[in-house]
Amino acid sequence: MDLVTIGNMLNTALVFSTALILTALGGILSERSGVVNIGLEGLMTAGAFAAAVSAYHAQEAGFGALTPWIGLLAGGLFGVLFAVIHAFATITFRADQVVSGIVINFIAAGSTVYLVKQLFEGAGETSLVNETFHKVAIPLLSDIPVIGQGLFNAYPTTYVAFILVAVIYYVLYKTPFGLRLRAVGEHPSAADTVGIKVLRMRYTAVLLSGLLAGFGGATIAMTTTGSFSHNTISGQGFIALAAVIFGKWNPLGAMGAAIFFGFAQSINNVLQLFDWSRDIPPEFIYMLPYVLTILVLVGAVGRSRAPGALGEPYFAGKR
Amino acid sequence: MNKVIRLFTKDSAVVPLVAIVLGLIVGAIIMLFGGYDPILAYRSLLKKVFGNPYDFGETLTAITPLIFTGLSVAFAFRTGLFNIGAEGQYIVGMTGATIIGVQVNAPWFIHAPLAIIVGALCGGFWGMIAGYLKAARGVNEVITTIMLNWIALHLGNYLVNTFVLEPGKGRSYFVDDSAAVTIGWLSRAMDNARIHWGMFFAILAVIFVYAYLWRTKSGYELRVVGFNPDAAKYAGINVNKGVVKAMFISGALAGLAGVFQLLGVFLNQPISAGHTGHGFDGIAVALLGGNTPLGVLFGAILFGTLSYGAAGMSFGADVPPEIIRIVIGSVIFFVAAPGIIRWVLKQLRLRKNKGEVA
User: Fold this and answer.
1) Which run of H or of E encompasses B50?
2) Which CATH number belongs to the domain containing residue A77 in this structure?
3) Strand ranges, E, within A12-119
4) Helix (H, G, I), strand (E, B) or coil at B275
5) Is residue B282 within 8 Å of residue B86, measured between CB atoms?
6) Which residues of B touch A93 (CB under 8 A)?
7) Rg of chain A over CA atoms, in angstroms?
8) Inter-chain contact B326–A111, Cβ cutoff 8 Å?
9) Which of A110, A241, A245 sits opposite B322 (nearest CB)?
10) CB–CB of A110 and B150 under 8 A?
């Protein structure tokens, strides 16, 4: 395997990883505040749908190169809309968080396809958007051999994702807001006694998770597909959830996990290039990312510790 | 009137009924916004399901796998495990049954039972992998079952491709008649709806899960593990063994869903690019049924009826059938958050009381 191939592989991996990183960051914020978010899949679906629809209209209205950015923003906002349901049910009404997440997945899958059929006269897919994101090479850095091609010639959303990893890491671990958010997830009643507004913190975290997962879904629509149909998001939300747990609820860890998943996905494309690997039944190559994930979890990670109060609704009067 | 409201505000079996009504209302409101006629839509749904014997039979056929996957998820939930992997266990169970059904030659009284048992064991084994990894290595079963779903999809395709593929067809050979569990005379009586014995096994499975979890020591232990693993350990229950056992049974139940879909409905297994969704729907059914066996039965009936009837809605009232997933999602939402129902009713009552004072 020569170095150019490795560079290309890295490049493909990052395309897969971007959506996972953004969504996983959302998952981390929500779960760190004590709210399980199994609805990431649905939030991504909502994001991809809103991105495809609004970008289509933006393109028709002549927004040109701004189009995918409008799509991205719309995706994030639509994700927030669904996250409101999750927050309302789990935080205000103390519904079971897992159940609510499943419901989000259900309603997002149903309502987006329903709306597509309504908006596009019965078609199962939104009209294709041509004005999507293009890869941007960063001057100088992209001239570095191998790594330059691999890392610094990517979609703008990939750079956004990496910047957000740094931002959220900083916010979670270096700011009072982050400390409060984590405190609410570890021990809400202790946090309450020192004056932290538990419910407000949780609302903030869950809504932000909707924004980020919406971005995640939107990046898929705005880079890979250019449209939205029922299978635009097929399981990536669950993979992002796996990245959250795999990365031990830490932004850097989740980023690593997301890149790993992306890398494992791109192996599919690369293994077909060589003589020695061409005879491997394709099914086994498709399986590889998932098998690798399990093996890594078994071997390297071991017991991961979730935030202390994850999954528990907060009653102000409860001790 | 107050008596009726008091009935609703109590924790009772009425909450699910209110939830169903509210879910249907949510669907109706959305249809109104879209410019559709909700009354016509729901009437078309019912007409589709109960309009003729064929569609009624097919509705029963749609309900059957949901009972199994719903039981599978509910069983795991009772042991404190979240089995997102019914989808994968379904595929592996189906693949096991396909291979036995196509490759083995035996009289029907051996062939069909063998295919059913092998399929159930395959599904059980697939579930057990996640149980073992949880027990031995502490790996979160949510991740492993998600991963195993995808592995199962590709493994199933590989096995069909390698052992039972009918060349050029993109699917396996049909299983031998001796392995099929169809009920010919009943199907013919219902205009060739695909009626099969799986439905009766599904009812048996409901009884089994109830009897096992609530009437045996071993089932009791699993429920204790689900309630409080620390207490279970203190009481001398082998928690790890319980986790593996629970995932085996849960996987076998999901596997049976695949087995009966194959031996009773499809009779051949296609190479598939994606999941069927029966496993994920099982999560919804389990939640609808509050994770009790009888609840799962009713949940599956509701889910299956609405989903099958949805086709009638698009035919009769031009409504995209996806609306029904919003309805089902809303019902689960209201079942899971009975607080919302009580809150709404309380507001209504307060307003009414205020009206009386004034």
Assistant:
1) helix B38-50
2) 1.10.3470
3) none
4) coil
5) yes
6) 337, 339-340, 343
7) 20
8) yes
9) A110
10) no
* Contact between A7 and A146 (Cβ < 8 Å): yes
Residue A181 lies in a domain: yes
CB contacts of A231 in chain B (<8 Å) are 274
A9 and A271 Cβ atoms separated by less than 8 Å: no
Question: Tens-digit pLDDT profile for chain A (319 aa)?
Answer: 567 777 777 888 888 899 999 999 999 999 999 999 989 999 999 999 999 999 999 998 888 888 999 999 999 999 999 999 999 989 988 888 888 898 899 899 999 999 999 888 888 888 888 888 888 887 877 777 777 777 777 889 999 999 999 999 999 999 999 999 999 999 999 999 999 999 999 999 999 999 999 999 999 999 988 899 988 888 889 889 888 888 889 999 999 989 988 887 777 667 766 777 677 787 887 788 788 778 877 876 555 677 878 878 887 766 4
Q: Measure in Å the smallest separation between the Cα of A202 and chain B Cα atoms.
A: 18
Query: CB distance A114–B161 less than 8 Å?
Result: no
Three-state secondary-structure class, residue A66: helix
Domain count across chain A: 1
| Interface check A315 vs B, CB under 8 A | no
The answer to whether the CB atoms of A93 and B84 lie below 8 A apart is no
CB A19 within 8 A of CB A219: yes
ipTM for the predicted complex: 0.83
Q: Note whether B7 contacts A: Cβ–Cβ < 8 A.
A: no
At a CB cut-off of 8 Å and minimum separation 6, what does A104 contact? A39, A42, A43, A82, A85, A86
**Contact residues, chain B, for A102 at CB < 8 Å:** 283-284, 287, 332
What is the distance in angstroms between the Cα of A285 and the nearest Cα belonging to chain B? 9
In a domain, A314, yes or no: no
Any domain includes A25: yes
Which of A106, A118, A239 lies at the smallest CB-CB distance from B329?
A106
- Is A45 in contact with A108 (CB distance < 8 Å)? yes
> Considering CB atoms only, which of B137, B149, B322 is closest to A114?
B322
Amino acid letter at A269? Answer: N
> Residues with Cβ < 8 Å from A72, sequence gap 6 or more?
A51, A157, A215, A218, A219, A222
How do strand A153-154 and strand A136-137 relate by DSSP bridges? antiparallel
Chains A & B: contacts with CB separation below 8 Å? 138
Q: Which residues in B lie closer than 8 A to residue A38 (C-beta atoms)?
A: 142
C-alpha span between A96 and A90 (Å, rounded): 6
With respect to residue A82, please indicate whether it lies within any of the assigned structural domains.
yes
Q: State pLDDT tens for residues A267-285.
A: 766 776 677 767 778 788 7
State which residues form the domain around A133. 3-301
Q: Which of A93, A281, A297 sits opposite B158 (nearest CB)?
A: A281
Angle at which helices A251-271 and A156-174 cross, to 10°? 150
Contact A102 B287 (CB under 8 A): yes
Give one DSSP letter per residue of B1-21, joined into a string: -HHHHHHHHSSSTHHHHHHHH
